[in-house]
Model the fold of this input.
Amino acid sequence: MSDILHELFGLAGKTAVVTGGAKGIGAMISRALVRAGVHVLVIGRSAHQGEDFVASLEGPGQAEFLAHDLSTMAGVQAAAADVAERAPAVHLLVNNAGAFSASPVEAADPARWDAEMALNLRAPFFLTQGLLPSMRAAVRPGDPARIINIGSFGALWGKSNNGAYAYGATKAAIHQLTKMLASDLTASGINVNAIAPGYFPSDMTDGFFSAVPGLKDMVVASIPAGRLGTDQDMAGAVIFLASRAGAYVSGTILPLEGAAWQA
Done:
């Protein structure tokens, strides 16, 4: 790597926490960070799936899987304590874990609504709270610690996405929470940003597409870039925000959607 690329984008030796980091977009992020030389603590619910995933990762970095259920406050608190025990300094927290459902207004289920609010919104805030001491320990002059929240381009427009009311509301709240946390934490050396992905391959989008024949082709045709997002697209955005290149960026919502929302 040339000097300027290493100076601006190098992450080797840092420690990151990625929630929901063994599946979908989270797996893309974990994989990229290990390849960049980062020690990644992957948090998820399925120990078997998580252990298999981290064992498959290749690169100069390393990964550990931490089995915790972030849909409960007890799970969030246990995860924060586990991370603090393993890594006294956390340079990057990626709040990615989330759940999705959609239904007509008349069929919306209160229990499902509460579950999405808990995992998509409550967990990121209180995990951030719990990891603040570890993140403050990672701060260096000119090199802030970073929080990257995974929002959604679905929270940037008014469309219901076939009735994804709880999901859209939680992701819009994540965008607002990102700005509010940035206003409070940036001065102390913790930058907070969000990525608002469009359509990327994942269990969520696969289920979405398989439910409606021909929908995937229609969606791709509606994206000006002419394709779904890729691992490299997500990796590039995360590495930028986590590295020296993004050290002066805080409070930003970065759409990553091939102009599907912008156009």
Observations:
- The beta strands are 15-19, 39-44, 62-67, 92-95, 145-150, 190-197, 253-256.
- The mean pLDDT is 95.
- Residues 71 and 118 are 5 Å apart (CA to CA).
- The radius of gyration is 18 Å.
